[in-house]
Design a protein that fits this description.
5-stranded mixed β-sheet; single chain; 107 residues; mainly beta
Length: 107
Amino acid sequence: MEHELFRTNLEARVIEREGDQDFFIETYSYPLNLNLEVARMSRIQFPMSRAILVRTTPLSKWVTVHVLRDVDLFSSFANFELHLEAKKLSIQKEEGYITMQIESQSR
């Protein structure tokens, strides 16, 4: 799936929410690796995540990402906001894990 703010090779279910859109992405309990471009830190791993919920709004380039233990928002055990001006969030299933990283829009 390709969206203005993110891309994924996993199935994403769209949930309309008062003009905003949520994207529910099943991770099938694969480890989720959030790759970082931060000095002295390469990644954060979320083991046993059930799904990712990406919340978007047409009003800004900010998205909220929730890492879920189950299929509802109340099971969120981690969440963070990303500003994706000239960037795109990439969520890709690899062999035995899922990677999440911020890429330049040109990719």
